Amino acid sequence: MRSSINAILILLFTCGVAAAQSADAKAGDKSAAGVYLPSEATVNSFMQQTFGYQPNLTWKISSIKPAPVPGLAQVDVVLASPQGQQISRLYVTADGEHAVIGDIIPFGAKPYDPARKTLEKGITGPARGPKDAPVTIVEFGDLQCPACKAAQPAIEGLIAAEPNARFVFQNFPLEMHNWAAKGAAYADCVAQASSDAFWKFIAKTYETQADITAENADEKLTVIADGVGLKGADIAGCATTPVTKAHVDASIALGHSVNVTGTPTLFINGRSIGNVSQVPAESLKGLVDFAAKQGK
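Above: the chain sequence. Below: its structure as tokens.
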């Protein structure tokens, strides 16, 4: 494992999920699934030994739980520095003496089919492009996420280059962001009112992202809704309803079901793509063209 935080952050250009899950395992404990879970004290000691030389870096344990694959524990730690926040994900081996940083990816003859089928059944967000398109691109995004804002030019460029693909946006607000859930609620209500207005709404929200705070989010988002041709007061009222919360929660659950761990995450016919703004435009287009040739 690399000991430099800069090396870790190279791998983590997405905004990380800071899930509100317990990290209260005791040293040597096993979960209900029989997986060894390191204690909070062990994780904190590891982080101190690894990153203690960087005085501007702090961390918070987000979760300690069994990993999606048998025999490994998954440890999520939110790293904070003057440059922002990122999540570092560790997979700890059963002996408690080794850890791996990286992504667990699907494997098999058709590794992306399970995620593709799950998304086909579950996507409910606003969409652009033909319904019978050979390729469906799904973005899980967070309107407060700086990485999502940074990725928008690449995503819009991909949509422009692939008019025969279908693009779907799914809300995935992160708990580490203090107005993201409210932004998702407004976005959901805007989408229900007008699909065309939705794309303008998220573009303007990203454009003014730095000016929005938890304290002024209602005011700012209402003004943006007004600016895209809707009645902002109506959107604000809609955003507080249980129905809207259920829509957003369902979108988050869909993301979890296909192992979304940060934003933005794109799926191209089920193939997960992170670090979107760092992927060359020709590579993104190549992935879409390749998926179209493979068919569904």
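The longest strand covers residues 58-66.
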